[in-house]
Every structure is written in structure tokens, then in C-alpha cells.
């Protein structure tokens, strides 16, 4: 692969990462302004299957390992995420397909968006609450969505590469 193509893949991935971080942080600022400053404690119904809620996740995805008061837990999770991001950036610099570059960018952007919350607030702001009747999926945010979409795109890229190699 040529250096120009590698630079293009790196640029694509970094652009997707930056866009993910900006969208994530803007939506969190908007939700905090809406729900905190308006004094809404129990959420805002948007559709019969969707509410805006305000939760602070001190654990990892979907509240796993929720570490009570933040502080040390936020630092540990931020350091782990930083290490993963460093590895992903190394991989991004070697990505050969636009789909893989975008996928890595989504994951990096999502991780950086959530780390920004941990550093600034001691927890990640989650606000998207989808539900079916009384069954609620754990609240999440745009960064979490970017990470999940990035992993799905990575799997798709791997499947496409397997098919092309056959």
C-alpha cells in the first residue's frame, strides 16, 4: 500500500473520530442544559418507545463495574481507554480499507468522548433511553453508539476481506 493511500486512510479515520467526539459532546451539552437547567429529574418522553433521561455512568458500558463515587474509578477507566485508543491509532495508521479506517475512527471517537466526560465530570453522561413497555435498555449516548457502530463496521470489514480472499 502506498504512503499516500495510508495517509488518506489515517485522515479518514481521524476525521470520523473528530466528528464523533464533536457530535457526542454537543449532544451531551444540549441534554445537560435541557434536563439539568430545566429541573427535569425523571426524563422527558419523546416517543412511545424513547425518553431523554439523565444518568451518570461511573462504570463501563451499560453500567458494568459501576464504581460509586467516581474519582479513582474514573481515572482507571480513563487510563484503560487511553491505552486502547493508542492501540487503535496504531492500527488506524496501517488500515488498508476505508471501511476499517472509518470503523476505527468511530471507536476512537466514542472512547475519547466518554473519556472527556470522565475527566470533566467523573462519570459518563448517558441520556438515550429506549424501551418496550416497561422493559428499558440501559441508557446510552452518542459515543456508545459510535463504538457499537465501529465494532459492527469492523466485523463487516473482516467478513468482506474474508470473502475477497477466498
Estimate the helix proportion, in percent.
55-70%
Distance between the termini: 20 Å
The secondary-structure class comes to alpha+beta
Order of helices and strands: HEEHHEEH
C-alpha geometry: globular
What proportion of the residues form beta strands (DSSP E)?
Answer: 5-15%
* Integer tally of domains: 1
Largest sheet: 4 strands, antiparallel
Radius of gyration, rounded? 18 Å
Number of E-state strands: 4
Instruction: Give the neighbour order of strands across the main sheet.
Output: 1-2-3-4
Count of DSSP helices? 4
- Output mean pLDDT: 88
Residue stretches low in confidence (pLDDT < 50, at least 5 long) are none
State the main characteristics:
166 residues, alpha+beta, 4-stranded antiparallel β-sheet, 4 helices, 4 strands, 61% helix
Write the layout of secondary structure elements.
Layout: H1 3-35, E1 44-47, E2 50-57, H2 72-92, H3 98-121, E3 124-132, E4 135-136, H4 142-165
Antiparallel strand pairs: 1-2, 2-3, 3-4
Helix pairs in contact: 1-3, 2-3, 3-4
Amino acid at each position: 500500500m502506498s504512503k499516500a493511500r495510508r495517509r488518506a486512510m489515517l485522515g479518514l479515520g481521524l476525521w470520523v473520530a473528530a466528528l464523533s467526539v464533536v457530535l457526542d459532546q454537543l449532544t451531551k451539552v444540549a441534554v445537560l442544559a435541557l434536563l439539568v437547567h430545566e429541573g427535569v429529574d425523571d426524563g422527558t418522553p419523546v416517543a412511545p418507545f424513547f425518553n431523554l433521561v439523565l444518568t451518570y455512568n461511573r462504570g463501563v458500558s451499560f453500567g458494568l463495574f459501576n464504581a460509586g463515587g467516581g474519582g479513582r474509578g474514573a481515572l482507571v477507566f480513563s487510563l484503560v481507554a487511553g491505552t486502547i485508543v493508542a492501540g487503535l491509532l496504531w492500527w488506524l495508521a496501517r488500515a488498508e480499507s476505508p471501511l476499517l479506517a472509518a470503523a476505527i475512527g468511530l471507536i476512537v471517537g466514542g472512547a475519547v468522548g466518554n473519556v472527556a466526560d470522565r475527566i470533566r465530570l467523573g462519570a459518563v453522561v448517558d441520556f438515550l433511553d429506549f424501551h418496550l413497555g416497561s422493559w428499558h435498555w440501559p441508557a446510552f449516548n452518542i459515543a456508545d453508539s459510535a463504538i457499537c457502530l465501529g465494532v459492527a463496521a469492523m466485523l463487516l470489514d473482516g467478513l468482506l476481506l474474508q470473502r475477497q480472499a477466498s
